[in-house]
Amino acid sequence: MPSVVIVDENAARASIIEAGLIAAGHEHVTIINDMTGIVAKIAAIAPDVVVIDLQNPNRDMLEDALQLSRAVKRPVAMFVDKSDNEMMQSAIDAGVSAYVIDGLRQDRVKAILDMAVSRFNAFSKLERELEEAKTALENRNVIDQAKRLIMTSRAVSEDEAYKLLRKTAMNQNRKIVEVAESLVLSANLLDGGQS
Amino acid sequence: MIEINSGFLPLTDAAILIIAKEMGFAEEHGIALNLLRETSWANIRDRLAVGQFEVAHCLAPMPIASNLGLTPFATPLIAPMALGMGGNAVTVSYDIYEKMCAFGYDGQFDAAIAGGFFHKVVMDIQQNGGRKLNLGVVHPFSAHNFELRYWLSSMGISPDHDVQIKIIPPVLMADALNAGQIDGFCVGEPWNSLAISKSFGKVITTKTAIWASSPEKVLAVQSDWADKNQDALQALLVALVKAAKWCSSKQNFEKLAQILSAEIYLNMPAELVLGALSGSLSSSVSIDTDHNLPFLEFYNNAATFPWQSHALWLYSQMVRWGHLEHSAKSAEIARSSFRPDIYRSALKSTDAIIPSGNSKVEGALKTRTAVGAASNTLYLGPDGFFDDNVFDPDQIDRYINGQTSV
User: Fold this and answer.
1) Does A57 touch chain B (CB under 8 A)?
2) Do B46 and A92 touch (CB under 8 A)?
3) Interface pTM (ipTM) of the complex?
4) What beta strand segments (E) does B64-132 contain?
5) pLDDT digits (tens, 9 = 90+) for B309-352
6) Fewest CB atoms within 10 Å of the CB: A46, A98, A153, B192?
């Protein structure tokens, strides 16, 4: 099995890829999170494949180092097979790229890159879901706050306060959370930002 | 509306593309220009190769290197337009600057004078058994790398033996200087200004001082796409040249700086960008008074014309520093990577002043000179190298034979 280095400043994402590669039988997987002295680190490991996050601004430096190594020692580093345009597209969309030592069997390379692509995509999905969950929670907080304001000022039950919010939203053709937000905001203004 | 996707890196010389979009020049010519910020030149190259970008803000030597198969994932690219001239500077750490001053350097940007004092410092450190100085550039196939090497070599400093040139991304350049990972760098703006504003270093010379009226970025276009979308490309070039004219007008600098400073573009304070545009480089020394050329020129003196002599000189430097062996075939690939013919046919019915030739002798014009143009009067130059060495593209074999790489 070829040895793999994962260059990713996002430690969580790198671990997810590492776990995937180990589960697929790769024993020699190294993560590099810290970019200081990265060229020396990679040279010491002499990996067959380097997987790198496309957002990493060090990519030009890394590529230069891999190309230079062609002159000084064994590995010939090259980009993953350019004839496979579809694979490249999906890798770029996922935000990952790979450098491969020349002579490595294409199917092995493809398996590694496919793994990295799917894990990158899974990670982005997870991040998106987390973001959505956070927004949902924030929305619920705002609605709860608005309900309490209505309950206090109008002396109604929670259920009635919610119905009032919903009715206003429907009448104004707005989302409940938007109506709640403006209510909380105006209450804050009237209170001089106290509540 | 034709949709065109262009990648760019956050640098002041992405201005022409950004202004074409923001000031409506692209739209005026039927183009919906999508600008996508990237983090590395490698990303720009890859996304051009797989067709996610039709065009991109690109280092001038990159299309040449790609066409010569010198880069990974090489793909046929053309450069039908330059995105301005000048705009780079050489900055060194305070430590090196002070050492230069101790030898009598007074802060002049003149490349020979600054180079002479830098040479003294390099030799002094060497004689005292000090470590080799490290200098940063952003990419091996960048004008920065080649002009820095040219300057060092002309001053008797071997870029491979007396110093070490390292590749550092522009966003990390200032920090690398501060952390002592490098002792100096050659990079485009606003990264010099940023390093100066943080008091990490001082500018000692500029691209314009090393090679006057020289190219820095070009518009790289995927060759296949250009063949199949000639009308769209021509419309884009007209829009971009209009944008270039707008960018070069001093009265627009403030607005330009404001637009460039936006989070989606350079994401930097507008006053820093303004300084970078006017070449004040956060210092009171005005740049390049000898040549009377602006630090960064977007439009005048045919700043957007893709001179094939520029492509050939960049090629000669690739040969010089061992990227490939010279052959007539390779030189031809390099020359035809720059496409003044496309530029000319796109701009012929506009008021743009277009040079009548595709190449010129670099270093022939010592001062600003009126020359023949397809219409009106075109001013060119000065366009020389600081060491008065002339590059005649018709004598490229002789030029390459006469170069040393130590």
Assistant:
1) yes
2) yes
3) 0.88
4) 77-82, 85-86, 88-93
5) 999 999 999 999 999 999 999 999 999 999 999 999 999 989 88
6) A153
